[in-house]
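Appendix B: complex inputs.
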Amino acid sequence: MQSAIEAIAEPHRREILRLVRAAELPAGAIAAHFEDVTRPAISQHLRVLREAGLLRERRDGTRRLYRARPEGLGDLRRYLEQFWDERLEVLRREAEHDERSGHGGGNRN
Amino acid sequence: MQSAIEAIAEPHRREILRLVRAAELPAGAIAAHFEDVTRPAISQHLRVLREAGLLRERRDGTRRLYRARPEGLGDLRRYLEQFWDERLEVLRREAEHDERSGHGGGNRN
DNA sequence: CCTGTGCGTCAGTGGACGCTAACGTAAGGA
DNA sequence: TCCTTACGTTAGCGTCCACTGACGCACAGG
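Resulting structure:
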């Protein structure tokens, strides 16, 4: 999960993921979408994303086609989900506590 | 969202979030949980988490009590969720395509 | 007022990260 | 075989980040 978080922490890499989310694109086409970054930099980003399990690579002649691999974000997604569930759990427990102590309920954000 | 991702990209900061997820703790108690990191470092992490909106701070005398603020992860959570939905969407579209072209359906992982 | 406690903050440092330019490699086409 | 296309890889550089030690500040007690 650590590698996945670090991967999507970079804005350019999130943009790459967005580009290949629904379509399979060759490295060159991906790099062409960025004006302020050179091709080698994109190539390195692709490598990071690939090693984090967020990208799938397929070769076709001299080209390499990339595509998002959403399952790679599964662990991170579950981590956040757990956090969310815990939040509801805490709110529920506090509500019970408030009722029993007769506070009636404070402001809930 | 950028600040939230960067905040949870650091393992120590995720550990801090875990500590104050269900309980409110003073800065000192949080720092005491870490053996290989000094108190100032933790203080800086608390600052990062706070500015990212992932932590709530409350003062009590000389102490500062911290507590997780899960809503701060909302944007990131929705971002991943959208990714997930898109994934299902793509799978659905491909299934349709496969049916029409009579491929029958490949391996769906 | 002085001391102790609980924290935040600042300056400085080592290491990691993103970037570019140059180079290396593999697959066609003439 | 030579050239071109489409990439990845490497060396080097500037910048950012996490960390530590020293210091500053606010609050409580005597």
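Residues 26-28, 31, 39-40, 43-44, 46-47, 61-64 of chain B lie near DNA strand C (CB under 10 Å from a C1').
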